[in-house]
Design a protein that fits this description.
Radius of gyration: 25 Å
InterPro entries: 6-blade_b-propeller_TolB-like (IPR011042), DUF3748 (IPR022223)
Distance between the termini: 24 Å
Strand order of the largest sheet: 3-31-30-29
Number of domains: 1
Strand content: 35-45%
Protein name: DUF3748 domain-containing protein
Organism: marine metagenome
Number of helices: 1
CATH superfamily: TolB, C-terminal domain
Length: about 475
């Protein structure tokens, strides 16, 4: 609502006199005026350091705790020393893991997620042999699993072997943004390769891999702080190339990935297929890089080499996907007026719908929905200004939340109805995550510290009443 002072000009005794008449104006935004908001946010962390949720799966299985990392403003994950959790009701903070020998060069910890069923967490851990010459890097890290019932015995999930001859089932560099599958038996991640890093940027391409837990791998060479065995069998599942063909489905970069469904998606023959959805960078016929939505089917057995080369790679090529992986492109926007997709792509729990961001006919970022089987995308939102984040799904598979207009919006994916749940504010929320029971949304805000004036990521929560869902 605005108050407008409207000038009215009259003549009095031959002189012009101006009167200002107050007029109250209301306006409708996207056809929906909303001035009252049903929920209030609660800040649950306050200490002057970062409590980064980082767009991960931060809720504990019982929905009572949020796990986060403590990366620094200047140094990021490289200087992250601890993994902590906070109780959403009592605000109690518990340190789950502290990195040994933490310094300016590493090892670094961050990007933590909870197991969906058990009190276990998975996070990035930098190599322990960090130094000034070899600090924490994208290709010098691995997945660390900690069982809260046995926190003093952390477990390396993905084996690492960067010395030729390489070991099948092990990787050669850095895994990142680890995510448990719905049953907790698999871990998905993005990846950069240390062997290719030595060859230069053109060859050091980001891609996607998985680890199948409870299938341990022992490396062929000697274990040390840079080469070590792991608790699972790992493989890269997306093939990338430094020189994709213009107009082809080849990609030079793969990221922004997540699991499709809690238990995969249903194929036309009725069987369930394990898969990850992601954004892959293709080269248009005009030789421009464009991010498109892709999906990759993942075989149950990761030990059989595929047609493109050895699972462990060579000194000249990346590790190659196992037999049975199938990489498919789902969107084709390169010839549209506003090409490309964005956001971390997310599937509903049933695995029938993948949500992502793309631009509408006016060049505005909106939420779109796509079947993992491939089809015409469906535009979910039609706002006058851009959606500001990727979506998070309610466990009912019918509602999503995301950022828009510096507020949090919940939308019904069936009828497209939507509601804001908090008033627009600065600094805007970020890194939304929805609890397993759908009753809590958590997020970060960067809040200035009263003493230092520096801003740190603090955690806020909103407790949701199901009766309010649109």
């Amino acid at each position: 609502v605005f108050i407008l002072l409207l000038p009215l000009k009259l003549k009095a005794n031959g002189e012009k006199v101006y009167f200002f008449i107050p007029i109250i104006l209301g306006f409708l935004l996207n056809g929906c005026m909303q001035t009252n908001y049903p929920f209030s946010e609660t800040q649950i962390t306050f200490s002057p350091y970062n409590h980064s949720l980082d767009n991960n799966d931060n809720f504990s299985p019982d929905n009572m705790w949020l796990v986060y990392d403590t990366r620094t403003n200047n140094g990021g994950i490289r200087r992250g020393k601890t993994i902590e959790k906070v109780n959403i009701s009592t605000k109690e903070i518990v340190t789950i893991y502290s990195a040994p020998g933490a310094s300016e060069t590493g090892p670094g910890t961050g990007a933590v997620s909870y197991h969906p069923i058990e009190n276990k967490i998975i996070f990035i851990h930098g190599l322990l042999n960090h130094s000034r010459d070899k600090p924490y890097e994208k290709w010098r890290r691995f997945g660390m699993l900690v069982d809260e019932d046995n926190p003093t015995h952390p477990i390396v999930t993905d084996a690492r072997d960067v010395l030729f001859p390489f070991t099948s089932g092990a990787l050669r560099g850095g895994t990142h943004r680890h995510e448990f599958s719905g049953d907790g038996q698999w871990i998905g991640f993005t990846y950069n390769d240390a062997v290719m890093a030595d060859k230069g940027k053109k060859y050091n391409l980001r891609t996607i891999g998985v680890t199948k837990l409870n299938h341990p791998v022992s490396i062929s060479g000697e274990n040390d702080r840079g080469n070590f065995s792991g608790a699972g069998t790992s493989a890269l599942v997306v093939r990338v190339t430094s020189e994709p063909g213009p107009g082809s489905d080849e990609i030079s970069h793969a990221a922004d990935d997540s699991w499709v469904g809690k238990h995969g998606y249903k194929k036309p023959d009725g069987t369930m297929q394990l898969a990850r959805a992601f954004l892959g960078t293709v080269l248009s016929t005009g030789r421009k890089n464009v991010k498109e939505l892709f999906i990759v089917d993942i075989p149950a057995d990761l030990t059989n080499p595929g047609p493109f080369g050895p699972l462990s790679g060579t000194t000249d090529i990346m590790p190659m996907p196992p037999e049975g992986t199938l990489q498919r492109r789902l969107t084709f926007t390169t010839s549209s007026p506003f090409p490309g997709c964005s956001g971390i792509v997310r599937s509903n729990p049933e695995g029938t719908t993948i949500a992502y961001l793309a631009k509408d006919k006016n060049g505005i970022d909106q939420v779109f929905l796509m079947s993992p089987l491939g089809d015409n995308p469906r535009q979910l939102t039609s706002f006058d200004n851009p959606v500001q984040s990727g979506v998070r799904w309610h466990p009912d598979g019918t509602h999503v939340c995301f950022l828009w207009n510096n507020s949090i919006v919940i939308t019904n994916v069936k009828d497209k109805s939507w509601k804001k749940i908090i008033s627009p504010t600065q600094p805007k929320p970020s890194a939304l995550v929805w609890s397993h029971d759908g009753r809590t949304i958590a997020y970060n805000r960067n809040i200035p510290d009263e003493k230092s004036g520096k801003s740190f990521a603090q955690i806020f929560v909103i407790f949701i009443n199901d009766n309010y869902l649109p």
